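Field reference: sequence -> structure
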Amino acid sequence: MSDQTNMLSSVVQRIGRATALDATAKKISDSVDTVTRPTWLKNALSGSWLGHQLHPVLTDLPIGAWGAAVALDLTGGEESAAAARRLVGLGILASAPTAMSGASDWSSTRGADKRVGLIHALSNAVATTLQAGSWLARRSGHRRTGVALSAIGLSITLASAHLGGHLSFVRGIGVNRTAFQRPTRKWADVAADSEILDGTLVRVMVNDVPVLLTRQAGRLRAISAVCTHAGGPLEEGTLDPDGCITCPWHGSRFHLEDGAVARGPASVPQPVWEVDVVDERILLRSAGNA
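Structure field:
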């Protein structure tokens, strides 16, 4: 590992241990939770409609626009001044939904991840403020000041992106927790039919995969027991009358019928398992094998 990598890792670890950030993080997180309480808004920001998180998609827009603006500043001269200003403005506009989706995801994190995410967000806020100052300076004819502010802002954005990358690819925030579960193509005997009572949530194992088995209104259903969002144990959740299971950790809701997300922060559906009963024994296999 290079000295530079060691230094970056040390900085991130120090941020993660900075418990002094917790009070501020909690206040902001509580406010975000209040704003995103409506299911339609939480799903929109989480990317439940997209099939994966929305925030990483949106981050390309401001970073790309501001990066292109700086490239024009360095290579295009006065002829590209108007185009560079428009790109700065485009990045500012794109930063709003990007920040909103990121805040929605961040509010479900805990501990060191929440602290690192807070600094990530605050750094992006500073960068956006600098870009706004750049746009105003350019518009009023102070191009050199605008160019300098854009360059500084982009540098902060890229540093913040490193923190975002750490959360996603080192800490696994937003990664589908069932992605590496191997499908089971053969029927597996998991329990006696009489053991699964109506309204109960039972965790069974199919090879090395934990599966949630439940009976509602007499009908057996099974989905993977590990919440796709953050790995929460769904068997400890709540079975809702509308045929959904609510994760006990962050409140994600899934339809038992097809595993579809009913409410974020989850954005990836739960894997569904086929259920059969033979000689009073419950058999399971991964859906899609019929």
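Note: The chain has seven helices and ten strands.
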